[in-house]
Structure formats: C-alpha cells, structure tokens
Amino acid sequence: MDAPKVNVPVTKYTDTVGGSIGDQKGIEIYAEAGGSPPSIGGKVTTVELDTSGTNNSYRGTLSVNRNDVKDNNFLAVEQSLKNAGNEFYFMVGEKNIRTLVADSSVPTDTKANLALGTPVQAEFEALINVIRGIFPGDQRNRADTMFINPKDAMAAVRNAGTNGEWPFLSRFIVGPTDNTDVVNNSGLAAALGLRNVWETPQIALGTVLIVKRDIAQVTGLREDLTIENFDLSVGGLYESDLLIRFHTKPAHPDVGAYKITAFNV
Predict the structure, then answer these.
(1) Which of 72, 154, 214, 231 is the most exposed place for a label (fewest CB within 10 A)?
(2) 110, exposed or middle or buried, with CB in 10 Å at 0-12, 13-18, 19+?
(3) At CA 144, angle to CA 89 and CA 161, rounded to 5?
(4) CATH of 5-261 given 3.10.450.50, 3.30.2320.10, 1.10.150.750, 3.40.50.1000
(5) Cα angle, residue 101 at apex, residues 99 and 104 outer, rounded to 5°
(6) Whole-angstrom Cα distance, residue 66 to residue 50?
(7) How far from 143 is each of 14, 192, 210, CA to CA, in Å?
C-alpha cells in the first residue's frame, strides 16, 4: 500500500510567489502604479516523506546464544539490546546529518575563504563569519546548532589560543566539565552563542555543518526503535529483529543550513 506517505508543507517569508530574496530590492517594487500589484509572500511547497512498505525501513537481527544467557543471566540479553540500540541511533543521526551535507542546495565554502585574508585564528574566524554574518545577513535566519567532528572541534579550540588569546570565553574551554555524554555536549555552544554543538564522528572530518534546525530539514518517524519477537528458537539462539522506520529530507537547506569544507586544512 502507498500509505503512510505524508506531504509536509514548507514556506518562508523570504520566498515569494513572484521572486527570490535577490529580487526584492526594496519596498518601492510594491509602489502602487495602477493595475495588478506584484505578488508578495504565499509561496508554499511540500516535502514528501515516504515510509510505505519497506521504504526507509531499517532492520537488523539480534542473536544471543542460550548458553550465554545461562552463564550471565539476563545481562547477556540486556547488553546485546543496548549495544544494538545505540548503534541504530548513532546511524540515524549520521543519516540525518549526511542528508544535509550531501544536499547541493546547502550554501558552502571553505574555511580558508571564510577566514580573514591573513588569518590569525582561521577556525574561529570562519565559524563567526557563518554564525554572525552569513546566517543573519544573507540567509535572514539565526543558526542554533552545529555538527563538528571531535578532531575539528579540538583544532578550533587549540588553534584559538596559539597567539596567547582565547576567544572562546567559556568554562568549557578545554572540554565539558559535567557528566553529560561528551559526544553530545560541547563548550563551543556557549562560546559561539548556539543552542547546541554536537562534537561527534557522525560528521566526517573536515566538514562542519551549521543549521537552524527547525527549518533546515524535516524527519518523519513512522516507527521508533522496536524489538520484534524476542524468543527462544531452534539452534539454542534467542533471536529477534530490531527495527526503525523514518524518512528525513531537506526542507529549507538554502537558508537553514551552511556547510564549511576543508576545515581541517
């Protein structure tokens, strides 16, 4: 069957029926001069999310040996399920990030081009150019989230102090000091004025993705992580399937995301 498919409407105030951001030269284009006025606002497009049948459905089989359960009680089962769930969730995050990174409509430039002509702290200069300049200036939005490989994050903090000055004014300057998972917690968020910075290998080394997360892309979740039929089967194995069904697509990547490449060069 085709269902469930869903069309998510997407719209933005800078996208008019009659033209793009670059066509809007000033209020004068709407000056009354008789006849029909030019179009303003109202443009709506849709993004189709499809989880019908086996589309965008992901499944893996868990097998736990009966003897392992006898020797280790339920811990053998619990650890197997936990590890598989963590792997799936990691891959779901990687898929969401990769969807935007691969989209050709996401504005992009290299660290070298975004930094000063004679850079002093190239990583910091490139990030500030995008977050404080390009997002509000060209894309007319405010970035709130960044995805950065841990080695790139390390270089950004380390190189920021090469001249004896640390622009990252945060108590997290050399790393988080609480008990939160360090993959998903970063002092760079406070330093750069973002809501979240994810220092994670889910994004490739050398690429930094900065987004306004509520407009950059949409994700439809038909079925969250589900364990199917965990029971003893022939051959002395406890077997079950781990399943998740979701679909993610870019929504407004041209104004809701920015990609910095060659960040590690």
Answers:
(1) 231
(2) middle
(3) 100
(4) 3.30.2320.10
(5) 90
(6) 38
(7) 16, 10, 7
Instruction: Decide if 225 contacts 244 (C-beta within 8 A).
Output: yes
Residue 1: per-residue pLDDT: 39
Q: How far apart are CA 47 and CA 5, in angstroms?
A: 10
Cβ atoms within 10 Å, residue 182: 13
Contact 121, 129 (CB under 8 A): no
Query: CB neighbours of 264 closer than 8 A, spacing ≥ 6?
Result: 149, 151, 152, 155, 205, 206
Using an 8 Å Cβ cutoff, are 76 and 63 in contact?
no
Blockwise average pLDDT, block size 10, the chain, 265 residues: 75 61 65 79 82 92 76 73 89 96 96 93 94 92 93 86 58 58 65 88 97 92 85 67 93 93 96
User: Which amino acid is present at 144?
Assistant: D
Residue spans per domain, the chain:
5-261
Q: How far apart are CA 253 and CA 93, in angstroms?
A: 17
Q: Residue 205 carries which DSSP code? A: T
pLDDT number for residue 110: 98
What is the bridge-based pairing of β-strands 257-261 and 108-110? parallel
